[in-house]
Design brief:
Layout (H helix, E strand, L loop, with lengths): L6 H14 L2 E3 L17 H5 L2 H7 L7 H6 L2 H14 L6 H12 L9 H8 L4 H12 L1 E5 L10 H4 L9 E2 L2 E2 L1 H5 L1 H8 L12 H18 L4 E5 L10 H17 L3 E5 L1 E2 L12 E2 L4 H10 L5 E5 L5 H10 L3 E3 L9 H15 L15 H26 L6 H20 L4
Parallel strand pairs: 1-2, 2-3, 4-5, 5-6, 6-9, 9-10
Antiparallel strand pairs: 7-8
Length: 417
């Protein structure tokens, strides 16, 4: 294939390739209609997402508890008025809402929330999923499935028929960071555990993991961990990882996805919107990768200050896969900084983004915004190669983009291509 020799031609080729490549979104909080009310979609859900709940309190003096007690419709109206009408919607969270509406062909020129709502009336969830996946050009999403969640668990007791585009991940936060409460929850499920981590209890935890792997068929284990997370250490968390999670992971060929750095409820009055961020210990990741070379680790860290260390660690351990720009890092300036650094340190051997979408519609803006940045940074790097005498072809670009937007993950977790 003929090499690309002109900068404008190269940029155009990269942009088209990135836009056309379907995404395998490796971490979301989305659900299929089979999970009932856990599937969130539509304008009121977009407006009352916790990113915007936190943002509106910067302008409006309504007491936190009063805001959270408002019906969802009233919350959405307050947020629309404050963040979109009284102030310019230029934050990433508000811009995201606008991108969703624009890509769906819903006009906001009149700044009329009722007109926007009218565009959603009559839509059915199953059909709307098709619309969103097509608009966002998403091939599949990985859900977050928590057997300790009282609202989700009953759905698994039914004969669930999942949409094949929705993959599963086994979330085990409670098991690792709230062991006494997790033990109390496991007993009614039929597992003979006790607060003390005896050999019998650890065996029962392994049985619990096997049972839920058989039931869910997850792509990986997942846990959100605090900045204080460390390994090795004398704690229930460390013992459960070493003596239950990792042995089962090796046996079942399941990676462990660690999302490290969230400080839960630094403002409890804001509920889900009240979490913060802290710098974490990269040494914990290094120790796990070194001590357990037969396990695989997907890792994203919440603090900007951890990103360079994580890249360096990934250069040293083939069983470590950095992924995404998580939560407070999901801002264009930081996404671009992180993507450039990863390309410079890791080539194309990482997963540049995941949506973390909690509302179905968010797939549209998360991927639209991230594709722009990925295309721009890749074009810059390819052009540097061209200037150094290395020919770049459209086939090269298609291969690399396919790997970045899905292939790397599929190979890492052993999923079928």
């Amino acid at each position: 294939m003929k090499p690309i020799c002109k900068r404008a031609e190269l940029e155009n080729a990269v942009r088209k390739c990135v836009e056309r490549q379907p995404v395998y979104d490796i971490h979301t909080h989305l659900y299929t209609p089979a999970f009932g009310s856990l599937l969130l979609w539509g304008i009121d859900e977009l407006l009352t997402y916790h990113y915007l709940i936190a943002e509106v309190t910067r302008y409006n003096s309504i007491p936190y508890d009063q805001l959270l007690r408002l019906p969802k419709k009233a919350q959405a109206e307050l947020i629309w008025d404050e963040l979109f009408v009284r102030h310019s919607p230029i934050s990433e969270a508000t811009r995201g809402v606008l991108t969703c509406l624009d890509r769906l062909g819903i006009s906001t020129r009149r700044r009329d929330l009722e007109a926007v709502r009218a565009a959603f009336r009559g839509r059915k969830a199953a059909e709307y999923i098709d619309t969103v996946f097509e608009t966002a050009n998403v091939e599949a999403v990985v859900m977050t499935n928590n057997p300790f969640d009282a609202e989700e668990r009953p759905a698994w007791d039914k004969n669930l028929r999942l949409d094949s585009r929705f993959k599963t991940a086994l979330r085990i936060d409670e098991l690792l960071v709230k062991w006494p409460q997790a033990a109390a929850a496991l007993k009614p499920m039929g597992y003979a555990v006790e607060p003390k981590l005896s050999a019998r209890t650890l065996g029962e935890v392994r049985r619990f993991l096997h049972d839920w792997i058989d039931r869910m068929k997850p792509a990986y284990f997942a846990a959100s961990l605090p900045p204080s997370f460390d390994f090795p250490e004398q704690s229930a968390c460390a013992r459960l990882i070493e003596e239950a999670l990792l042995p089962v992971g090796r046996e079942r060929a399941l990676p462990f996805a660690m999302m490290i750095g969230v400080k839960k409820l630094i403002n409890p009055a804001l509920a889900l919107a009240g979490d913060g961020v802290g710098r974490s210990k990269i040494e914990a990741v290094e120790h796990l990768c070194a001590a357990f070379p037969d396990n695989k680790f997907l890792v994203t860290m919440l603090a900007r200050e951890n990103q360079h260390e994580l890249c360096v660690a990934a250069r040293k351990f083939r069983n470590l896969m950095p992924f995404g720009c998580w939560w407070f890092l999901n801002n264009p300036s930081l996404i671009e900084e992180m993507t450039r650094m990863r390309l410079e340190l890791l080539g194309t051997s990482f997963i540049p983004q995941h949506s973390d979408a909690r509302v179905l519609d968010q797939l549209i803006y998360k991927w639209a915004h991230s594709r722009e940045i990925l295309a721009r940074t890749l074009a810059d790097k390819y052009w540097m190669s061209v200037q150094s005498g290395w020919p770049v072809t459209k086939a090269d670009i298609r291969r690399d983009v396919a790997n970045l937007l899905g292939g790397n993950f599929k190979r890492f977790v052993g999923a079928a291509e």
